[in-house]
Amino acid sequence: MANYDKNFTDELRTRLSIVDVVSRRVPLTKKGQNYWGCCPFHNEKTPSFSVNEDKGFYHCFGCGEHGDIISFTMKSENVGFVDAIKELADMAGMKLPEFKPRDPKIVAREESYFDIMERAATEYQKQLFTPAGAVALEYIRRRGFTDDMIKKYRLGYAPKNNFIANKFVNTRQDILIGTGLCRRGDYGMYDFFRDKLMFPIFSARGQIVAFSGRSLDGSEPKYINTSDTEIFHKRKTIFGFNFARENIHRNNRTIIVEGQIDAIQMQCHGFPETVAPLGTALTEDHLAILCKANRNIVFCFDGDNAGRKAAVRAADIVLPFVRDDSDVRFAFVTGGKDPDEVLKNSGTDAMRAIIDAAENLTDFLWNTANNNYVVSTPGGRAQAEKFLKSETDKIADVALRAEYENEYNSRKFNQWHKWSRKPQATQVAVPEIDAITRNTLVFITNKFPEIAERHAEFLAKLNISLDGDAPDMNMDARAAERYITSLKLQNYLKKLREQKQKLTTDILHGDADDDARGRISAIDSEIAKYTEKLEQMISE
User: Fold this and answer.
1) Strand order in 29-31's β-sheet?
2) Is the pTM higher than 0.70?
């Protein structure tokens, strides 16, 4: 009998929790690491039907039935394989592919991709320990990486020349291009990664599917990733998950940080359950994968405004995955630091204190509402109530949603009538991006993905969704590049003016140091320089 593409059935198993599938027909109770209920395949009064969410299978110790989400749906619904796949696809919100055997040519092509990526990683790592890679090696060692860490995570160096294109000169060009390592230009094949510190990106199974390259000369963007390929989809790939998977199960939680160096340092210094998204905002696909492994999550973000905005978005997308036994928390690294810096300067105990002090989801949403709306006024309270209602409505579990609503109703009654707004050191605010700007960025992302990739770090910090379609715009690649560059300049100028305002305030209050006026003068020069650059760009 023909089968669906294995990638599709694997995607179903990745997206859908077996607990979610089974609990539609069998009431389950969590005991230890597994869920238990009465077997639907034979009559019993004492639960002997076990469901393991992490491994994705069920087993009945009474009748011996065993399987995954597909076999459970077939047996419990008394339907065939095709109908079971259709039902699960509807549940996962996935479009059903054409029912046909997997093309052997596609299988062979993917295997060749994996082979090239593996060989490339080996070659990059060799280059790291040559004179050409000296700057990259010195940088990563300065960041606290030992040779054992370099070996484990297979860090490497991509030389300035077309190293991979020359190394794989006898490989079919379409296959090499299909890996994302090389591209075809007017003068032949050229490397996508040049003069970069290289971080291999692994699939959940431990196969190298892509690379992330860090600039070494201070150029922007700091990181560029392999563009999406047949074997790599950025929105569905989690950095460090292959190393963290067993530890997530063992430690009964996942820690999510913002960057890959943070993730590696956390994994190597007492927090092996740590992962990170890949240069983009956290997505629903990331959380679907992580929540299948474990629904206890600690989001650990920088304590600046960008980190706070990222936390608000994370809360927004995690809510549909929350269950009554979930423990979702938010930790913030303050003082402009990140986990890597905390571990390097203050040690594991300081980082553990930050994680242990993480704010639970209930309090985080409540404090976000209070920090963003003036709840001392009727209008502000109405806005805050709408925010809390919109967030709690995303909780799928009806009973849990009701408990959240009861909790917030109690807090509103007991606190808001005597609330006095106090100044906050950090305000958690939603992104200040208008609809026109967002539509323009969506258009650029869809039409010019290479440009969006170059500016991925900046776009991620805007903390807006760039999914979906936007109206067609009369904009070529040059205009798109200039548009994003002008946005970056405007953001930079805004930060400079904020720094100047703070220094000026400090001087007026006598809180400034001796060098404050000199720094203001330097900021004025910087503002003048980049204002002129922005004006020239606009006038061209």
Assistant:
1) 29-31, 34-37, 49-52, 57-60, 66-67
2) no
